[in-house]
Write a structure and sequence with these properties.
Elements (H helix, E strand, L loop, with lengths): L1 E10 L9 H10 L3 E11 L25 E4 L2 E4 L6 E3 L4
Antiparallel strand pairs: 1-2, 3-4, 4-5
Bound molecules: zinc ion.
């Protein structure tokens, strides 16, 4: 399964951490801030251990039964624990 990691760089005369993302984006598009970088990289979930926030990646605890580990088998992730669930890594 592919995901896109997008990196956006916005320059503003105030710290960008205290504002909502949509306000920052609006400032960048209307000229109150400047967007100097917008890159999107397609990645396979299996290439990105940091993508564990999606809940499914090789080596993570199974989010379904929480007693097994997810293991990459072919183009699937399979739970080694009691549920044995599989998750396809191929976009459908
Ligand atoms: Zn499981």
């Amino acid at each position: 399964m592919s995901y896109y990691r997008t990196v956006v760089e916005i320059w503003s005369d105030y710290p960008g951490t205290g504002v909502e993302l949509e306000d920052l984006a609006r400032a960048a598009t209307c000229g109150d801030a400047i967007c100097t970088r917008q890159e999107s990289i397609e990645m396979e979930i299996s290439e990105c251990p940091e993508m564990e926030f999606f809940g499914y990646a090789d080596g993570l605890e199974c989010p379904d039964c929480r007693c097994g580990t997810l293991e990459e088998v072919g183009d699937e992730l399979r739970c080694t624990g009691e549920c044995g669930n599989t998750t396809s890594l191929v976009a459908s």
